[in-house]
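Illustration 12: phosphoenolpyruvate carboxykinase (ATP).
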Amino acid sequence: MAGNGNTDGEFSFSAAAARDALPRITTEKGAKSTTSSDVCHDDTASRVNFQTIDELHSLQKKRSAPTTPLKEGGGVVIGTSGPTTPVSGESMLQSVSASLASLTRETGPKVIRGDPTSAAKVSHVPQTPTSVPAADISDSALKFTHVLHNLSPAELYEQAIKYEQGSFVTSTGALATLSGAKTGRSPKDKRVVKDETTASELWWGKGSPNIEMDEQTFLVNRERAVDYLNSLDKVFVNDQYLNWDPENRIKVRIVSARAYHSLFMHNMCIRPTPEELENFGTPDFTIYNAGKFPCNRFTHYMTSSTSVDINLGRREMVILGTQYAGEMKKGLFGVMHYLMPKRKILSLHSGCNMGKGGDVALFFGLSGTGKTTLSTDHNRYLIGDDEHCWSETGVSNIEGGCYAKCIDLSREKEPDIWNAIKFGTVLENVVFDEHTREVDYTDKSVTENTRAAYPIEYIPNSKIPCVGPHPKNVILLACDAFGVLPPISKLDLAQTMYHFISGYTALVAGTEEGVKEPRATFSACFGAAFIMLHPTKYAAMLAEKMQAQGATGWLVNTGWSGGSYGSGSRIKLAYTRKIIDAIHSGSLLNATYRKTEIFGLEIPNEVEGVPSEILEPMNAWENKVAYKDTLLKLAGLFRNNFETFTSHKIGEDGKLTEEILAAGPNF
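Figure caption equivalent — predicted structure in token form:
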């Protein structure tokens, strides 16, 4: 090849041009030539602060401490959730070691901070040498358990993708995970320790979600979970809070084996500030989540390889044989249903929003009633979508995040939820394209119970802190597939308690010989699976608070009109929104009402934007006889369901119980 040639197929260059393109090299002293004592540097780049590749890598990451936004004095904070960087040192490790201590050993395991794959020097809890019999020493006692404490979402992504099969980043940045064999809660495998205290305090027996176990069996399962967690090279530890009311918040610690579980609880619980984390101390409640590691089926009270156990005396929860993250969320909700009433605070399974004028509304409703849709209103601030407390100062969200259903999700139907599925969000059991990683929310291949867990700040109109004044309206939602309940009814106090205890909705059953029949569903306090005390106790607290604050109760039917499912039609969402708007504005308080037969519900003569003919259910039915028969059928179902609660007296004289019973259907 010729140096300066220009022949086709040959490459030529100019030495002078090449020399001019190179960075200029000068010496530190500014000399034109270099000697062995001179330090050369490239004046086109800044000087470096490292001598080795390890030092370079150490400079890549710096400590930061973004947190859950806490805006003083209320108001709305819009933005992404921040991870909480661990700040505590030896005291945190000592506390975690104590949490992981076996009940049969004097000290907890040797714990060390950091990822076991990291070559960096990490601190650990010093152990005082003791002389113990060889029979008391186990392999797990000789090893270090690495503690990954309050990792950020980015760190948890790395852990999940690297070590947990089935973890992927979707096209929108969310972390898609699998919960294994269990894709929902296992209520038949949930147990609560029955001791001298809880025997008299909790709701046991017919209709109760509380299935008993004894203290000894709990300790057997606890030991099994703790031994499993201690056998691992690393465990994830989350120290967080429940309840946005600073005077009544609960400190919780979650010890788990999966990054997926840690990120889920990072999103769902309230994230502490670095200062709060440094002074976190001993938790008020601890979860030991052993995930896929099963319980021993030969253990007393066990009916499968799954067991979810709560010990209110020890303030502990043990999870064995299920990786479904919702068990942690709902387990803690049950704990709050026990702890909060002891402080005269009402715990509620409800949505909650607040108008710009400060008026707060509570939304109760079972699956399919529209609770999430109706409580999410762009003209109002979202306090929370699922779990709340009502104290002497007002309402507060229990959680720091939202757990939304994803099946058939679309941008048009639920734009806020759609946009919240981004980096930091956990997507459970969804199906996605293997190349583009775009999620198909209509695909039920894994389960119909697909879910997204994200920080509440991902909702643009969320109110941070998630607290508000006393509610003005208590809205009970029912999807009545029988088509006989009015679209809107105003309730007196006794009626509110009756329908709150009943917790009614109706679901459409499967097809049998071409005939579809609605099926009534009752869930006490609109959340029977999670309550600890007798439903009448929560109802009495609700009535007391409503009466003290002058709140109004409403029953809203989001189901069928003009006939049952199959003959009538679903009440249009636009009409239901007009009804909810009229409740918020206060216009329905000034409306004129008439009373229905059987249920004795007061229905308004008119609601702006809603056809008057659907306000009275009978008018919308062509077959009046069929309407009456269906109405009596539903009334009978209500009465049969309520027989479970008639033996429990509210108050010393039981007068309130009689008022509640009188508020039910009369036929």
